[in-house]
Write a structure and sequence with these properties.
The complex is a heterodimer of chains A (about 250) and B (about 260).
Chain A (H helix, E strand, L loop, with lengths): L1 H16 L6 H16 L3 H22 L8 H41 L2 H8 L3 H39 L4 H9 L4 H27 L5 H31 L1
Helix pairs in contact in A: 1-6, 2-6, 3-4, 3-6, 4-6, 4-7, 4-8, 4-9, 6-7, 6-8, 8-9
Chain B lengths: L1 E10 L2 E11 L3 E6 L6 H8 L7 E6 L2 E2 L5 H8 L2 E4 L11 H12 L4 H14 L15 H13 L5 E5 L7 H18 L2 E6 L2 H7 L2 E6 L2 E6 L10 H7 L3 H15 L1
Parallel strand pairs in B: 3-8, 3-9, 6-7, 7-8
Antiparallel strand pairs in B: 1-2, 1-4, 4-5, 9-10
Helix pairs in contact in B: 3-4, 3-5, 4-5, 5-6, 6-7
Classes of the chains: A mainly alpha (about 250), B alpha/beta (about 260).
The structure holds adenosine-5'-triphosphate and magnesium ion.
The site of magnesium ion (MG) has 5 residues of chain B, from helix 1.
């Protein structure tokens, strides 16, 4: 019952978020601000994690394949498809849910308890739209780039692992990552990314926007936002995979 | 002119405001006084629609605020300025950007006009050379003044101040009170101020409304307040021994 109320309140807030902005110029400015704080500042973490995951996937696949019947280049193919299908969209989504999500819910929660949101409302500004819409737009546009970047860097990380450990010949890996490439996998990953971007921004924003109390509650709202959006990402991952790949 | 008729407000079944009716006049500093927790902030937030009242009517110069839809309320709010209990400046923006914000959002002024207006308002609250600082880098009293500047930048017809001088030393508090009072008279604004500071009441209380446990117990001027016979009000204004003695002496003197 409580969960239904929450869902209802979430959609009421979204109706406020996705309404016509008062002054487009102010919103463009906000969008660029958010692209910087939510997108560009996430490049580092995405690159680091993708490189290591690409390397680990390659090595693990290599050491689990002792059968000489299986050609070595399949390891490259496996690493590539794992990055494309799951890692670069879902795992990066989960990581961003932590980083971007906590950023959003603590920022908005802080604005709530210090009455900054009330101040916006008193001025006659639609605070939900002004605070949340630019974040959603920024992530929906920028996260696909993060996903593409993660794909390239991850595959590159696999190659680095081959070269540095000698686990398999670089030529096999390079052949593997070009073998039987399915372009739709990239599209599939990007579609997931866009859906995840909406989850990552709106759910923590909802939690922050409805904070009551003090700093402690802001912390709680932040945790709640991350946990809820992570679960939703996993859930929508299943739904979208069934819809797109079956 | 802001008129309240029979305002009731409760949270989750717990009633905070009981049947409040009062008129706030333009060009005057209207004070709402009462103990901590008596419902002053709730009343003020109900008047501007941040809380939805259970029943009752609110009129802004004959415009019925309660029956307006969200959009109409938002439009009416462009005529309001508010100074919050904790200043509520946007901490990601500089002082100048804070004051400019309503102009950027709603006015069609040119850059130069906006800059002039911001400087005029900063001047009006006696602040110089703080344009590029962030709210965290200035003192509490300065934050209050910046918040006043932001509240008046669009020339509001209605100004709301929630405890404008809480957390300030008596001298700075006086400066802020004087500032609000001056602005009110200068532009004929309907100003409503929440306070529990008796100094403010004596200085600028042209109309005083006393709220006690969610009820309106008394209203009058700062001259009448000293001679009221409302028990709760006397309890409130003569809370300190010193004030009680002053009152007794006054009575002695006038009777002898
Ligand atoms: N959002 C809310 N939900 C539930 N109860 C509330 C809410 N806001 C205020 N109250 C209750 O309403 C009562 C009046 O609170 P209010 O903030 O108006 O007091 P106040 O007169 O402004 O006090 P102070 O001088 O300390 O600011 C308090 O008992 C408070 O617990
Ligand atoms: Mg209060």
């Amino acid at each position: 019952m409580k969960i239904l109320t929450e869902i209802g309140k979430y959609f009421i807030l979204m109706a406020k978020v996705f309404s016509r902005p008062e002054k487009n110029k102010m919103y463009y400015k906000q969008i660029f601000r958010e692209i910087e704080s939510l997108g560009i500042n996430s490049i580092g973490i995405v690159v680091v994690i993708s490189i290591f995951m690409g390397a680990v996937i390659t090595l693990q696949t290599r050491y689990n394949l002792e059968n000489p019947m299986i050609p070595m280049y399949l390891i490259g193919l496996t690493a590539r498809d794992t990055m494309l299908l799951e890692f670069s969209s879902t795992m990066v989504g989960l990581i961003l849910a932590g980083k971007v999500g906590s950023n959003i819910s603590s920022e908005i929660g802080h604005m709530r308890i210090t009455e900054q949101i009330d101040a916006l409302e008193v001025m006659g500004v639609n605070s939900a739209c002004y605070l949340i819409l630019p974040k959603v737009v920024a992530c929906v546009f920028f996260n696909p780039f993060l996903t593409l970047l993660s794909m390239f860097v991850g595959v590159f990380g696999g190659w680095l692992a081959c070269v540095s450990t000698g686990a398999l010949p670089s030529s096999d890996y390079l052949y593997g990552i070009q073998y039987w490439f399915v372009p739709f996998y990239v599209a599939y990953a990007l579609i997931k990314t866009v859906v995840f971007a909406i989850i990552i921004t709106t759910v923590p924003a909802y939690c922050g926007y409805n904070v009551k109390g003090g700093a402690l509650e802001v912390g709680r709202a932040s945790t709640k936002g991350i946990v809820t959006s992570s679960i939703l990402i996993l859930l929508f991952n299943v739904i979208l995979t069934q819809l797109l790949l079956s | 002119m802001v008129i309240l008729r029979n305002i009731n407000k409760s949270f989750n079944g717990e009633q905070v405001l009981y049947d409040i009716s009062v008129e706030f006049e333009p060009g005057k500093t209207n004070l709402i006084i009462g103990k901590s927790g008596s419902g002053k902030t709730v009343l003020m937030k109900s008047i501007i629609g941040l809380h939805v009242v259970d029943n009752g009517k609110i009129f802004y110069n004959d415009r019925d605020f309660v029956s307006m839809n969200h959009k109409e309320q938002r439009n009416l709010r462009k005529e309001m300025g508010m100074l919050f209990q904790g200043s509520a400046l946007f901490d990601s923006l500089t002082v100048e950007e804070n004051i400019r914000f309503p102009l950027d959002m709603f006015s069609t002024m040119t850059e130069q006009e906006k800059r002039n207006r911001v400087n005029f308002c900063l001047n009006r609250v006696n602040l110089d050379n703080v344009n590029r600082l962030f709210p965290a880098e200035i003192s509490g009293g300065m934050q209050k003044r910046v918040a006043i500047a932001r509240a008046i930048v669009l020339n509001p017809r209605y100004l709301f101040c929630d405890e404008p001088n809480s957390g300030l030393d008596p001298k700075t508090a006086l400066v802020i009170d004087k500032l609000i009072s001056d602005i009110t008279h200068e532009y004929n604004i309907t100003t409503i101020i929440n306070t529990h500071d008796m100094n403010s009441v004596m200085e600028i209380g042209e109309k005083v409304v006393f709220i006690h446990q969610g009820h309106k117990c008394w209203e009058g001027t700062n001259v009448e307040i000293m001679n009221s016979d409302d028990e709760a009000l006397n309890d409130f204004i003569f809370a300190s021994d010193f004030a009680k003695k002053v009152k007794e002496r006054n009575i002695d003197q006038s009777s002898s």
